[in-house]
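Hey, can you fold this one?
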Amino acid sequence: MEQENGKLYTEWGFTTQKSAVEWFLSFGDKVKVLGPPEMVALMKSTVDSIKNLYES
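Sure. Predicted structure:
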């Protein structure tokens, strides 16, 4: 559903958290996970792990 600001809001169901994270990451910096809190935390953790790969 398109928001007034032009952004899209949608809800999806996934069989595993890992598959959800992989799908979200396929959008690069064009996606922001808003909930549930556990998924937001998992996304942050995954992004931090990726960032660490490039800091050394």
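The mean pLDDT is 92. Let me know if you want another pass with a different chain boundary.
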